[in-house]
Amino acid sequence: LLSTGGKCRVAVEPLVPCRRGTTDESAGSFFRRRFGVEAASCIAQPLLGGIHAGDLDRLSASSVFPQLVDLERRGRSVLLGLRRHAARPAAGGAFRSFPSGMTTLTGAMVAQLPPGTVRLGTLITTMTRHGDRWRVRSADGSTHDADLVVVAVPAHVAAEVLPAVSPDVAASCGMIRYVSSAAALLVYRARDIARPLSGSGYVTGPARRPDPVMATSWLTGKWDGRAPHGFTVLRGFFGGDRDEGSASLPDDTLIALAHDSWAHRFGIVGRPVLARTVRWVKGSPQHEVGHLARIREIDARLGALSGVAVAGSGFRAVGIPDVITDARSTARDLLDRWRAR
Ligand SMILES: Cc1cc2nc3c(=O)[nH]c(=O)nc-3n(C[C@H](O)[C@H](O)[C@H](O)COP(=O)(O)OP(=O)(O)OC[C@H]3O[C@@H](n4cnc5c(N)ncnc54)[C@H](O)[C@@H]3O)c2cc1C
Fold first, then answer.
1. What fold, for 4-85?
2. Which of 48, 51, 95, 153 to mutate to test the pocket of ligand 1 (most atoms within 8 A of CB)?
3. What is the whole-number distance in angstroms between the Cα of residue 283 and the centre of ligand 1?
4. Which CATH architecture has domain 178-285?
5. Choosing a second label site near 190 at 20 to 30 A (CA), which of 95, 117, 288, 306?
Protein backbone atom coordinates (compact mmCIF):
# COMPACT_ATOMS: atom_id res chain seq x y z
CA LEU A 1 0.00 0.00 0.00
CA LEU A 2 2.79 2.44 0.95
CA SER A 3 6.32 2.84 -0.45
CA THR A 4 9.26 2.36 1.93
CA GLY A 5 9.55 6.15 2.19
CA GLY A 6 5.83 6.42 2.95
CA LYS A 7 6.11 3.78 5.72
CA CYS A 8 9.14 5.55 7.23
CA ARG A 9 7.19 8.81 7.27
CA VAL A 10 4.35 7.13 9.18
CA ALA A 11 6.85 5.56 11.61
CA VAL A 12 8.33 8.94 12.59
CA GLU A 13 4.89 10.36 13.49
CA PRO A 14 5.71 10.27 17.25
CA LEU A 15 8.49 12.81 16.54
CA VAL A 16 6.21 15.27 14.72
CA PRO A 17 5.62 18.33 16.92
CA CYS A 18 2.04 18.87 18.07
CA ARG A 19 0.08 21.69 16.46
CA ARG A 20 -0.59 24.68 18.67
CA GLY A 21 -4.00 26.31 18.85
CA THR A 22 -7.47 24.88 18.62
CA THR A 23 -8.73 26.26 15.31
CA ASP A 24 -10.27 23.60 13.09
CA GLU A 25 -8.29 22.22 10.16
CA SER A 26 -9.12 19.88 7.30
CA ALA A 27 -8.71 16.13 7.73
CA GLY A 28 -6.22 16.28 4.83
CA SER A 29 -4.04 18.88 6.53
CA PHE A 30 -4.11 16.90 9.81
CA PHE A 31 -3.17 13.62 8.13
CA ARG A 32 -0.44 15.07 5.94
CA ARG A 33 1.12 16.87 8.92
CA ARG A 34 1.11 13.80 11.14
CA PHE A 35 1.61 10.89 8.71
CA GLY A 36 2.85 12.34 5.41
CA VAL A 37 1.43 12.92 1.94
CA GLU A 38 1.42 9.29 0.87
CA ALA A 39 -0.50 7.93 3.88
CA ALA A 40 -3.00 10.77 3.47
CA SER A 41 -3.75 9.93 -0.16
CA CYS A 42 -3.43 6.12 0.03
CA ILE A 43 -5.08 5.48 3.43
CA ALA A 44 -6.99 8.47 4.79
CA GLN A 45 -8.70 9.64 1.58
CA PRO A 46 -10.03 6.21 0.53
CA LEU A 47 -11.20 5.45 4.08
CA LEU A 48 -12.95 8.79 4.57
CA GLY A 49 -14.30 8.52 1.03
CA GLY A 50 -15.79 5.16 2.02
CA ILE A 51 -17.28 6.30 5.34
CA HIS A 52 -18.29 9.92 4.65
CA ALA A 53 -18.30 9.93 0.82
CA GLY A 54 -16.20 13.03 1.44
CA ASP A 55 -13.12 14.92 0.33
CA LEU A 56 -10.20 14.84 2.77
CA ASP A 57 -9.41 18.49 2.13
CA ARG A 58 -12.93 19.72 2.91
CA LEU A 59 -13.89 17.52 5.87
CA SER A 60 -13.18 18.86 9.35
CA ALA A 61 -10.57 16.89 11.31
CA SER A 62 -12.31 17.69 14.63
CA SER A 63 -15.63 16.44 13.27
CA VAL A 64 -14.60 13.24 11.50
CA PHE A 65 -11.94 11.94 13.89
CA PRO A 66 -12.22 13.89 17.14
CA GLN A 67 -10.30 11.23 19.13
CA LEU A 68 -7.18 11.66 16.96
CA VAL A 69 -7.32 15.46 17.19
CA ASP A 70 -7.76 15.14 20.95
CA LEU A 71 -4.66 12.93 21.24
CA GLU A 72 -2.59 15.59 19.50
CA ARG A 73 -4.09 18.41 21.58
CA ARG A 74 -3.01 16.54 24.70
CA GLY A 75 0.54 16.57 23.32
CA ARG A 76 0.56 12.88 22.46
CA SER A 77 1.56 10.87 19.43
CA VAL A 78 -1.52 9.82 17.46
CA LEU A 79 0.15 6.56 16.40
CA LEU A 80 1.14 5.51 19.92
CA GLY A 81 -2.26 6.60 21.27
CA LEU A 82 -4.03 4.49 18.66
CA ARG A 83 -1.88 1.46 19.47
CA ARG A 84 -2.62 1.86 23.17
CA HIS A 85 -6.38 2.11 22.66
CA ALA A 86 -6.67 -0.37 19.78
CA ALA A 87 -9.92 -2.30 20.24
CA ARG A 88 -9.87 -6.08 20.13
CA PRO A 89 -11.58 -7.45 17.01
CA ALA A 90 -15.24 -8.15 17.86
CA ALA A 91 -16.20 -11.81 18.13
CA GLY A 92 -18.22 -12.76 15.05
CA GLY A 93 -16.69 -10.03 12.85
CA ALA A 94 -16.75 -6.25 12.76
CA PHE A 95 -19.97 -5.93 10.76
CA ARG A 96 -23.48 -6.09 12.17
CA SER A 97 -26.75 -6.08 10.30
CA PHE A 98 -30.24 -7.57 10.30
CA PRO A 99 -31.21 -10.46 8.00
CA SER A 100 -34.20 -8.46 6.70
CA GLY A 101 -32.47 -5.07 6.48
CA MET A 102 -32.34 -1.89 8.56
CA THR A 103 -36.11 -1.43 8.77
CA THR A 104 -35.98 -4.17 11.45
CA LEU A 105 -34.52 -1.51 13.79
CA THR A 106 -37.09 1.20 13.07
CA GLY A 107 -39.91 -1.38 13.07
CA ALA A 108 -38.84 -2.59 16.54
CA MET A 109 -38.82 0.99 17.84
CA VAL A 110 -42.32 1.68 16.50
CA ALA A 111 -43.56 -1.59 18.05
CA GLN A 112 -42.37 -0.43 21.52
CA LEU A 113 -44.57 2.69 21.39
CA PRO A 114 -48.34 2.92 21.91
CA PRO A 115 -50.25 2.48 18.61
CA GLY A 116 -50.63 5.73 16.64
CA THR A 117 -47.59 7.41 18.25
CA VAL A 118 -45.57 7.29 15.03
CA ARG A 119 -47.08 8.58 11.79
CA LEU A 120 -45.12 7.06 8.93
CA GLY A 121 -44.94 8.53 5.42
CA THR A 122 -45.85 12.03 6.65
CA LEU A 123 -43.70 14.88 5.33
CA ILE A 124 -43.37 17.87 7.64
CA THR A 125 -43.19 21.21 5.86
CA THR A 126 -43.05 24.01 8.45
CA MET A 127 -42.81 24.68 12.14
CA THR A 128 -44.18 27.78 13.89
CA ARG A 129 -44.85 29.14 17.40
CA HIS A 130 -48.43 28.56 18.51
CA GLY A 131 -49.01 30.20 21.89
CA ASP A 132 -46.29 28.75 24.11
CA ARG A 133 -46.16 25.53 22.11
CA TRP A 134 -44.81 24.55 18.69
CA ARG A 135 -47.01 23.75 15.70
CA VAL A 136 -45.65 21.32 13.12
CA ARG A 137 -47.44 21.32 9.79
CA SER A 138 -47.43 18.36 7.38
CA ALA A 139 -47.65 18.25 3.59
CA ASP A 140 -51.14 16.72 3.87
CA GLY A 141 -52.29 19.91 5.66
CA SER A 142 -52.58 18.32 9.12
CA THR A 143 -50.94 19.96 12.15
CA HIS A 144 -49.49 18.65 15.37
CA ASP A 145 -48.89 20.81 18.47
CA ALA A 146 -46.16 19.94 20.95
CA ASP A 147 -44.25 21.42 23.90
CA LEU A 148 -40.96 19.92 22.74
CA VAL A 149 -39.76 19.20 19.20
CA VAL A 150 -36.55 17.48 18.08
CA VAL A 151 -36.06 18.19 14.38
CA ALA A 152 -34.30 15.02 13.18
CA VAL A 153 -34.56 15.42 9.40
CA PRO A 154 -31.52 16.00 7.14
CA ALA A 155 -30.07 19.52 7.60
CA HIS A 156 -31.14 20.63 4.10
CA VAL A 157 -34.74 19.70 5.01
CA ALA A 158 -34.42 21.47 8.39
CA ALA A 159 -33.44 24.57 6.37
CA GLU A 160 -36.91 24.49 4.77
CA VAL A 161 -38.81 23.64 7.96
CA LEU A 162 -37.23 26.12 10.39
CA PRO A 163 -37.32 29.65 8.83
CA ALA A 164 -40.29 30.72 10.99
CA VAL A 165 -38.57 29.35 14.12
CA SER A 166 -35.24 31.07 13.42
CA PRO A 167 -34.19 32.39 10.00
CA ASP A 168 -30.54 32.30 11.13
CA VAL A 169 -30.74 28.65 12.15
CA ALA A 170 -32.51 27.76 8.91
CA ALA A 171 -29.77 29.54 6.93
CA SER A 172 -27.03 27.73 8.87
CA CYS A 173 -28.74 24.38 8.26
CA GLY A 174 -28.86 25.17 4.55
CA MET A 175 -25.09 25.63 4.49
CA ILE A 176 -24.41 22.04 5.58
CA ARG A 177 -23.54 20.36 2.31
CA TYR A 178 -24.72 16.87 1.33
CA VAL A 179 -23.41 14.64 -1.45
CA SER A 180 -25.07 11.82 -3.37
CA SER A 181 -23.95 8.25 -3.90
CA ALA A 182 -25.20 5.12 -5.62
CA ALA A 183 -24.49 1.41 -5.38
CA ALA A 184 -24.51 -1.41 -7.93
CA LEU A 185 -25.22 -4.88 -6.54
CA LEU A 186 -24.26 -7.75 -8.83
CA VAL A 187 -24.82 -11.44 -8.12
CA TYR A 188 -22.37 -13.93 -9.68
CA ARG A 189 -22.04 -17.67 -9.67
CA ALA A 190 -19.19 -18.24 -7.21
CA ARG A 191 -17.49 -20.60 -9.67
CA ASP A 192 -17.26 -17.74 -12.23
CA ILE A 193 -14.95 -15.74 -9.93
CA ALA A 194 -11.39 -16.98 -10.51
CA ARG A 195 -9.55 -15.17 -7.69
CA PRO A 196 -10.36 -15.82 -4.02
CA LEU A 197 -12.24 -13.05 -2.20
CA SER A 198 -10.47 -12.70 1.13
CA GLY A 199 -11.50 -10.16 3.78
CA SER A 200 -14.77 -8.36 3.16
CA GLY A 201 -13.96 -5.67 0.60
CA TYR A 202 -11.72 -2.74 -0.29
CA VAL A 203 -11.74 1.01 -0.84
CA THR A 204 -9.97 2.62 -3.78
CA GLY A 205 -7.90 5.78 -3.77
CA PRO A 206 -7.36 8.21 -6.63
CA ALA A 207 -3.61 8.04 -6.19
CA ARG A 208 -2.45 5.00 -8.16
CA ARG A 209 -5.16 3.15 -10.08
CA PRO A 210 -8.16 5.22 -11.12
CA ASP A 211 -11.21 3.03 -10.49
CA PRO A 212 -14.78 4.25 -11.03
CA VAL A 213 -15.93 2.11 -8.06
CA MET A 214 -15.20 4.04 -4.85
CA ALA A 215 -15.59 1.05 -2.50
CA THR A 216 -16.46 -2.61 -2.97
CA SER A 217 -17.61 -5.27 -0.53
CA TRP A 218 -18.73 -8.85 -0.94
CA LEU A 219 -21.95 -9.00 1.05
CA THR A 220 -21.93 -12.80 1.04
CA GLY A 221 -18.58 -12.63 2.91
CA LYS A 222 -19.88 -10.13 5.47
CA TRP A 223 -23.16 -11.80 6.45
CA ASP A 224 -24.82 -15.19 6.08
CA GLY A 225 -28.03 -15.61 4.16
CA ARG A 226 -27.53 -12.84 1.57
CA ALA A 227 -27.59 -15.26 -1.39
CA PRO A 228 -28.20 -18.97 -1.99
CA HIS A 229 -25.19 -21.26 -1.60
CA GLY A 230 -22.91 -21.07 -4.64
CA PHE A 231 -23.60 -17.38 -5.39
CA THR A 232 -21.62 -14.27 -4.47
CA VAL A 233 -23.03 -10.73 -4.10
CA LEU A 234 -20.64 -7.86 -4.86
CA ARG A 235 -21.65 -4.29 -3.99
CA GLY A 236 -19.85 -1.27 -5.39
CA PHE A 237 -20.32 2.37 -4.40
CA PHE A 238 -20.15 5.31 -6.80
CA GLY A 239 -20.24 9.06 -6.30
CA GLY A 240 -19.34 10.91 -3.13
CA ASP A 241 -17.69 14.30 -3.05
CA ARG A 242 -14.80 13.43 -5.36
CA ASP A 243 -16.91 11.99 -8.18
CA GLU A 244 -20.50 13.01 -7.48
CA GLY A 245 -21.48 12.99 -11.16
CA SER A 246 -21.13 9.21 -11.31
CA ALA A 247 -23.92 8.82 -8.70
CA SER A 248 -26.42 9.98 -11.33
CA LEU A 249 -25.20 7.78 -14.19
CA PRO A 250 -27.90 5.52 -15.70
CA ASP A 251 -28.42 2.11 -14.06
CA ASP A 252 -26.95 0.20 -17.02
CA THR A 253 -23.78 2.31 -16.94
CA LEU A 254 -23.23 1.77 -13.20
CA ILE A 255 -23.72 -1.97 -13.63
CA ALA A 256 -21.33 -2.11 -16.61
CA LEU A 257 -18.66 -0.04 -14.82
CA ALA A 258 -18.85 -2.24 -11.73
CA HIS A 259 -18.75 -5.46 -13.74
CA ASP A 260 -15.78 -4.32 -15.87
CA SER A 261 -13.81 -3.24 -12.79
CA TRP A 262 -14.44 -6.52 -10.94
CA ALA A 263 -14.05 -8.77 -13.99
CA HIS A 264 -10.55 -7.35 -14.43
CA ARG A 265 -9.65 -7.44 -10.73
CA PHE A 266 -11.06 -10.86 -9.80
CA GLY A 267 -10.87 -12.69 -13.12
CA ILE A 268 -14.64 -13.04 -13.46
CA VAL A 269 -15.55 -15.06 -16.56
CA GLY A 270 -19.38 -15.03 -16.62
CA ARG A 271 -21.99 -12.27 -16.56
CA PRO A 272 -23.88 -11.44 -13.34
CA VAL A 273 -27.07 -13.47 -12.92
CA LEU A 274 -28.79 -10.50 -11.24
CA ALA A 275 -28.00 -6.76 -11.08
CA ARG A 276 -29.62 -3.93 -9.11
CA THR A 277 -28.81 -0.31 -8.30
CA VAL A 278 -29.65 1.75 -5.20
CA ARG A 279 -29.33 5.56 -4.91
CA TRP A 280 -28.91 7.93 -1.97
CA VAL A 281 -29.62 11.43 -3.30
CA LYS A 282 -28.07 14.00 -0.93
CA GLY A 283 -27.59 11.12 1.49
CA SER A 284 -24.20 11.93 3.02
CA PRO A 285 -23.73 15.08 5.13
CA GLN A 286 -20.31 16.68 4.84
CA HIS A 287 -18.97 17.89 8.17
CA GLU A 288 -16.59 20.41 6.68
CA VAL A 289 -13.99 22.66 8.31
CA GLY A 290 -15.88 24.94 10.71
CA HIS A 291 -18.76 22.45 11.15
CA LEU A 292 -18.51 22.24 14.95
CA ALA A 293 -18.59 26.04 15.28
CA ARG A 294 -21.70 26.15 13.08
CA ILE A 295 -23.39 23.48 15.20
CA ARG A 296 -22.52 25.33 18.43
CA GLU A 297 -24.15 28.43 16.95
CA ILE A 298 -27.28 26.49 15.90
CA ASP A 299 -27.52 24.88 19.36
CA ALA A 300 -27.08 28.25 21.09
CA ARG A 301 -29.77 29.95 18.97
CA LEU A 302 -32.24 27.09 19.45
CA GLY A 303 -31.33 26.83 23.15
CA ALA A 304 -32.46 30.44 23.57
CA LEU A 305 -35.92 29.38 22.34
CA SER A 306 -37.68 26.96 24.62
CA GLY A 307 -38.36 23.37 23.56
CA VAL A 308 -36.71 22.89 20.16
CA ALA A 309 -33.49 21.15 19.12
CA VAL A 310 -31.94 19.48 16.10
CA ALA A 311 -30.46 15.98 15.99
CA GLY A 312 -29.13 13.52 13.44
CA SER A 313 -26.22 12.96 11.14
CA GLY A 314 -26.36 16.38 9.49
CA PHE A 315 -25.52 17.98 12.82
CA ARG A 316 -23.49 16.11 15.43
CA ALA A 317 -23.09 12.44 14.63
CA VAL A 318 -22.46 10.20 11.63
CA GLY A 319 -23.19 6.47 11.72
CA ILE A 320 -26.09 4.72 13.37
CA PRO A 321 -24.58 4.10 16.86
CA ASP A 322 -23.51 7.76 17.21
CA VAL A 323 -26.83 9.03 15.82
CA ILE A 324 -28.70 6.98 18.45
CA THR A 325 -26.45 8.28 21.26
CA ASP A 326 -26.91 11.86 20.02
CA ALA A 327 -30.70 11.44 19.75
CA ARG A 328 -30.93 10.14 23.32
CA SER A 329 -28.84 12.95 24.81
CA THR A 330 -30.62 15.64 22.74
CA ALA A 331 -34.06 14.46 23.92
CA ARG A 332 -32.88 14.16 27.54
CA ASP A 333 -31.32 17.67 27.53
CA LEU A 334 -34.42 19.20 25.98
CA LEU A 335 -36.69 17.58 28.56
CA ASP A 336 -34.40 18.52 31.50
CA ARG A 337 -34.25 22.17 30.41
CA TRP A 338 -38.02 22.30 29.87
CA ARG A 339 -38.72 20.81 33.32
CA ALA A 340 -36.27 23.23 34.96
CA ARG A 341 -37.64 26.35 33.23
C1 LIG B 1 -24.77 4.49 1.47
C2 LIG B 1 -24.68 4.64 2.96
C3 LIG B 1 -24.15 3.60 3.73
C4 LIG B 1 -24.07 3.73 5.12
N5 LIG B 1 -23.56 2.70 5.86
C6 LIG B 1 -23.53 2.80 7.20
C7 LIG B 1 -23.06 1.72 8.00
O8 LIG B 1 -22.67 0.67 7.48
N9 LIG B 1 -23.05 1.87 9.35
C10 LIG B 1 -23.50 3.02 9.96
O11 LIG B 1 -23.48 3.10 11.19
N12 LIG B 1 -23.94 4.06 9.22
C13 LIG B 1 -23.96 3.97 7.87
N14 LIG B 1 -24.41 5.02 7.12
C15 LIG B 1 -24.76 6.27 7.80
C16 LIG B 1 -26.13 6.18 8.46
O17 LIG B 1 -27.06 5.68 7.53
C18 LIG B 1 -26.53 7.57 8.90
O19 LIG B 1 -25.51 8.16 9.71
C20 LIG B 1 -27.82 7.53 9.70
O21 LIG B 1 -28.84 6.84 9.02
C22 LIG B 1 -28.27 8.94 9.92
O23 LIG B 1 -29.45 8.92 10.66
P24 LIG B 1 -30.38 10.19 10.67
O25 LIG B 1 -31.59 9.80 11.47
O26 LIG B 1 -29.63 11.40 11.06
O27 LIG B 1 -30.76 10.43 9.14
P28 LIG B 1 -31.59 9.51 8.16
O29 LIG B 1 -31.36 8.07 8.44
O30 LIG B 1 -31.29 10.06 6.81
O31 LIG B 1 -33.09 9.83 8.58
C32 LIG B 1 -33.69 11.05 8.27
C33 LIG B 1 -35.16 10.77 8.13
O34 LIG B 1 -35.84 11.99 7.88
C35 LIG B 1 -36.90 11.70 6.97
N36 LIG B 1 -37.34 12.94 6.33
C37 LIG B 1 -36.72 13.65 5.35
N38 LIG B 1 -37.45 14.73 5.03
C39 LIG B 1 -38.55 14.71 5.84
C40 LIG B 1 -39.68 15.58 6.00
N41 LIG B 1 -39.84 16.69 5.28
N42 LIG B 1 -40.62 15.23 6.92
C43 LIG B 1 -40.48 14.11 7.69
N44 LIG B 1 -39.43 13.27 7.58
C45 LIG B 1 -38.49 13.57 6.67
C46 LIG B 1 -36.28 10.71 6.00
O47 LIG B 1 -37.29 9.99 5.32
C48 LIG B 1 -35.48 9.84 6.95
O49 LIG B 1 -36.25 8.76 7.42
C50 LIG B 1 -24.52 4.92 5.74
C51 LIG B 1 -25.05 5.96 4.96
C52 LIG B 1 -25.14 5.82 3.59
C53 LIG B 1 -25.74 6.95 2.75
1. protoporphyrinogen ix oxidase, domain 3 (1.10.3110)
2. 153
3. 7
4. Alpha-Beta Complex (3.90)
5. 95
Domain map (residue ranges) of the chain? 4-85, 103-176+287-339, 178-285
- CB of 181 closer than 6 angstroms to any ligand 1 atom: yes
In the DSSP assignment, the letter for residue 193 is B
Measuring CA to CA, how many Å separate 44 from each of 98, 198, 237, 279, 290?
A: 29, 22, 17, 25, 20
Question: Which of the two residues, 178 and 220, has the higher pLDDT score?
Answer: 178
Mean pLDDT of all residues belonging to the chain = 92
Out of 124, 156, 320, 326, mutate this one to test ligand 1's pocket (max ligand atoms within 8 Å of CB): namely: 320
Rounded to the nearest angstrom, the distance between the alpha carbon of 138 and the centre of ligand 1 is 20
* Strand spans (E) along 82-177: 124-130, 133-138, 143-146, 149-151
Give the integer Cα–Cα distance in Å for 284 and 53: 7
The atom number, within ligand 1, closest to the CA of 123 reads: 42
Integer Cα distance of 311 and 293 in angstroms: 16
110-133 per-position pLDDT tens digit: 999 999 899 988 999 999 999 999
Whether residue 27 contacts residue 61, with contact meaning beta carbons closer than 8 Å, is answered with yes
181-195: per-residue pLDDT in tens?
A: 999 999 999 999 999
pLDDT, one tens digit per residue, over 73-83 is 888 899 998 88
Ligand 1 atom 46: the closest Cα is on which residue? 153
Distance, CA 247 to ligand 1 centroid (Å)?
A: 17
> What was the ipTM of the complex prediction?
0.98
Is the CB–ligand 1 distance for residue 182 below 6 Å? Answer: no
